[in-house]
Amino acid sequence: GDSVTQMEGPVTLSEEAFLTINCTYTATGYPSLFWYVQYPGEGLQLLLKATKADDKGSNKGFEATYRKETTSFHLEKGSVQVSDSAVYFCALSELGNTGFQKLVFGTGTRLLVSP
Amino acid sequence: NAGVTQTPKFQVLKTGQSMTLQCAQDMNHNSMYWYRQDPGMGLRLIYYSASEGTTDKGEVPNGYNVSRLNKREFSLRLESAAPSQTSVYFCASSRGGLAGGPKDYNEQFFGPGTRLTVL
Questions:
Q1: How many angstroms from the chain centroid is the CA of residue A12?
Q2: Pair B62, B79: CB distance under 8 Å
Q3: What is the C-alpha to C-alpha distance for residues B49 and A76, in angstroms, rounded to an integer?
Q4: CB of B114 closer than 8 Å to CB of B24
Q5: N or C: which end of chain B has fewer CB within 10 A?
């Protein structure tokens, strides 16, 4: 089946540093791609998404570009803040054999930002 | 709108006890999901309901049952809890995920989670 691979964490940065969290995927067809964020003690929230090749998703200063040629959807932010400390999940939509699309998640990458 | 709500937030069970986790959404979504989250393993799908009246197994269904009570509510039952079911459980919903449908319909909205410990 389809799968998502994320870089292992934790990623530890100082405030205002540049962030990259790598995500690559394997999929048949043309999935949508997502980044979700989970703050401590909370559920997952959608951070950004892209539905086709070369699309760029962006939100709250985060960006990710759907790269079909490298099967990647890396998350970037130019200047992180302490409040960005969270776990970030990359996900894709997988078409199952019942004709229903489900999300497949990576294992998550913890980001720790210090002042 | 409350979005997706889950009860309880915390629960401690003894091995062999049963319990039901409740989930409700007020977004008129067609599809609902139950996941478990374990350290280092991300989210794994337990069961899902593509639409009212249907349920299907996900990646890790053993030891669980579900009921799609109506369009709003989707419950997860542990008939005989085991320590291996210690986890954080998340419910989610989406407008729908049928092939060929709008890709925005795949976006899932999550509840705050239930932390379950089985002793």
A1: 17
A2: no
A3: 34
A4: no
A5: N
For residue B44 the two structure tokens come to 């794994």
Token pair 């349920």 in the structure block, residue: B55
Would an 8 Å CB–CB cutoff place B39 in contact with chain A?
A: no
Helices (H), A46-109: none
Chain A residues within an 8 Å CB radius of B111: 43
Each residue of A6-37: pLDDT tens digit? 988 899 999 999 999 999 999 987 888 999 99
Return the C-alpha torsion angle A52, A56, A77, A87, nearest 10.
-30
CA of B40: which chain A residue's CA is closest? Answer: A107
CA distance A108 to B18: 30
List the single residue in B with minimal CA-CA distance to A37: B110
List chain A residues with CB under 8 Å of B107: 34, 46, 49
Q: Give me A48's structure tokens.
A: 């950004």
**Chain A CB contacts of B4 below 8 Å:** 43
Among all residues of chain B, which has the CA nearest to that of A103?
Answer: B106
- The series of mean pLDDT values per 10 residues for chain B, 119 residues long, is 92 97 95 91 90 91 96 96 96 77 74 95
Q: What is the DSSP code (8-state) at residue B69?
A: -
